[in-house]
Design goal:
Order of helices and strands of chain A: HHHEHHEHEEEHHEHEH
Radius of gyration of chain B: 18 Å
Largest sheet of chain A: 5 strands, parallel
Oligomer: heterodimer
Helix content of chain B: 40-55%
Shape of chain A: globular
Structural class of chain A: alpha/beta
Shape of chain B: globular
Strand content of chain B: 15-25%
Structural class of chain B: alpha/beta
Helix content of chain A: 40-55%
Radius of gyration of chain A: 17 Å
Chain lengths: ~280, ~325
């Protein structure tokens, strides 16, 4: 696959947003807010950064990805479908009893999912294990993970952060999707996490803080992470929850709620208009 | 062999002895390598040993991640932390994706002794047994422990292995026809009046109870149920049929462990009397290992009394 940049990444991310919100609407359940906020980073990873082969999802030398904020499965399922791991129709099976497209990613049944996640705080430890396994076995693959800013209230995240620095896991690059909102409201009110950059620096990570919707910034940060030796990298993504769907943007209420038919029609129209605009139609 | 060795010590020896033969084995500990006896492996194979510090949840998650990349991790800490503190990590990060990790709980039961209730675990069988697809194993002596470690190295899937702290008698090496197979109980002595189904360090104690009962003319079968899950249904059902009364014995709560597993099976398939010998819904306490075992009635004499009670309940 040819790597995507700039506008082509924006087009792909918009398609992924449309697929994800369609799946959530179809399931009448799911987590659209955080799926939209991490979609640009996720799209950039899968369409530019990760060394993977959709025809061979368990290829042992592939780069690994862990969605530590597993409730954003609609985003991951959509990007994996668009990347060719399975047909797009499969994404519409989200949360159905007839399917294995569970509410949270299940590595045993969804091609391309490298780790089952959903219980917050656990994914980063698994990513540390994958990176540590590479160091132990002399493999050169890299490991990536995305955490949520609400998720990092879990103590296990900081246990994992200490361990990644101890073993100098420069083959590990994690993100925190700082959309500033969680189920009960503003992260700053529920459990303040800032200053996140200083915290991870104090844990001996290399920290890069960027606009999480700026593809060039994401690509530059990923390059910097690859060039950073002797320590893991944390990319802090400043994002907007619900990004790309006007009525969801910046609203905690859209953390784990499906749009009704009317709302879905509006979301679809907005994303299609954006797609047309990007494609110059 | 004969003599005494703690199952944790035999475990530590087995890791070192098997490391070359099983190159995918990696060992993780949480700042207890001197107690869990992984220190020998750590010294011999430093590149395959990972001290995760006092962070059992993270250790469990790291092991999960490593196993997805083809390694065979054994995680080591005390049973209370392995099965209690990190319970949900074992469930969601290891067992739900059915990963190939052996979670090792050292210092199981109350024979931990002096450290007292916070460090004694009498709930681990119940906690681990409840998790779908989890294998639960508790070898009875040093000989069996070494065989169990190698069997687990050849096993694919999530497993829990319990070790004990005190040195205990090695008995299985002198039993004629003894062989070890995960999920298949070893009948160590035959008998017809009652069957004692024991696990872990209660197995040598069950052999002593058998002698006490023999002096009264009671013939007791002793079954070493080293694998609590999957339970060897066939051997339990045969014991129920042949003996008509069962005693279970474990260094664990009488709720949810081996006794629970045996009762669940027999109540549905052949409801003979079952008397459960273990810790009676209580926390542990400090004392020497022997004193604590005696305090909770985890002795051959009490077990023999339980056997008599089971026989008295026969119709």
């Amino acid at each position: 696959m040819e790597k995507l940049y700039g506008k082509d990444l924006a087009i792909m991310a918009t398609k992924a947003r449309l697929l994800a919100v369609s799946a959530v609407h179809n399931a009448s359940s799911g987590h659209p807010g955080g799926s939209m906020s991490c979609m640009d980073a996720l799209t950039t990873l899968y369409f530019n950064e990760l060394n993977i082969d959709p025809a061979n999802p368990t290829w042992e030398d592939r780069d690994r990805f862990v969605l530590s904020k597993g409730h954003c499965a609609p985003a991951l399922y959509s990007v994996l479908a668009l990347r060719g791991f399975y047909p797009q129709e499969k994404v519409m099976e989200l949360r159905s009893i007839k399917s294995h497209m569970s509410g949270h990613p299940d590595m045993r049944h969804v091609p391309g999912v490298d780790m089952s996640t959903g219980s917050l705080g656990q994914g980063l430890s698994a990513a540390v294990g994958m990176a540590l396994a590479a160091k132990t076995t002399g493999k050169t693959y890299r490991t990536y993970a995305i955490c949520g800013d609400g998720e990092i209230a879990e103590g296990q995240i900081w246990e994992a952060a200490m361990a990644a620095a101890k073993w100098k896991l420069d083959n590990l690059c994690a993100f925190v999707d700082v959309n500033g909102l969680q189920i009960d409201g503003r992260t700053a009110d529920v459990m303040p996490s800032e200053p996140l950059d200083k915290k991870f620096e104090a844990f001996n990570w290399h920290v890069i803080k960027i606009d999480g919707h700026d593809y060039d910034a994401i690509l530059n940060a990923l390059k910097e992470a690859r060039e950073t030796k002797g320590q893991p990298t944390m990319i802090i993504l400043c994002t907007t929850k619900g990004k790309g769907i006007s009525f969801m943007e910046g609203q905690a209420g859209w953390h784990g709620k499906a749009p009704n038919d009317e709302q879905y029609a509006q979301a679809k129209a907005e994303l299609e208009a954006r797609l047309n605009e990007l494609e110059g139609k | 062999m004969a003599g005494k060795i703690a199952t944790r010590a035999a475990y530590g020896e087995a890791l070192v002895e098997l490391a070359e033969k099983y190159p995918k084995l990696v060992v993780l500990d949480a700042d207890l390598a001197n107690a869990t006896m992984t220190k020998g492996f750590a010294a011999a194979y430093p590149d395959r040993f990972f001290d995760c510090g006092i962070a059992e949840c993270n250790m469990t998650g790291i092991a999960a991640g490593m196993s997805t990349c083809g390694l065979k991790p054994f995680t080591d800490t005390f049973a209370i932390f392995a099965s209690g503190r990190a319970y949900e990590q074992v469930r969601n990060s290891i067992a739900y994706p059915h990963l190939n990790v052996t979670v090792v709980g050292s210092h199981g039961g109350v024979s931990v002794g002096e450290d007292g209730a916070t460090h004694q675990c009498t709930e681990d069988f119940a906690l681990m047994r409840e998790i779908p697809g989890m294998l639960v194993c508790c070898p009875c002596d040093g000989n069996e422990m070494k065989l169990a470690v190698e069997a687990l190295l050849n096993y694919e899937g999530p497993a829990y292995l319990r070790l004990a702290r005190p040195a205990t008698e090695i008995i299985t090496d002198e039993i004629e026809g003894y062989k070890f197979e995960l999920g298949k109980a070893a009948t160590l002595a035959d008998g017809k009046d009652v069957a004692i189904i024991a696990t872990g360090i209660m197995v040598p104690i069950a052999m002593q109870a058998r002698e006490i009962l023999a002096a009264d003319g009671i013939s007791a079968r002793v079954i070493d149920m080293h694998t609590i899950k999957p339970l060897d249904n066939e051997t339990v059902l045969k014991a129920a049929k042949d003996c008509g009364a069962i005693v279970t014995s474990e260094e664990h709560s009488v709720i949810g462990g081996l006794g629970g597993a045996v009762c669940e099976l027999l109540s549905e398939q052949n409801p003979v009397p079952v008397v459960r010998h273990g810790v009676n819904d209580d926390f542990g306490r400090s004392g020497t290992a022997n004193a604590v075992m005696e305090y909770y009635g985890l002795t051959a004499e009490v077990l023999a009394d339980k056997a008599r009670k089971a026989i008295s309940l026969k119709k």
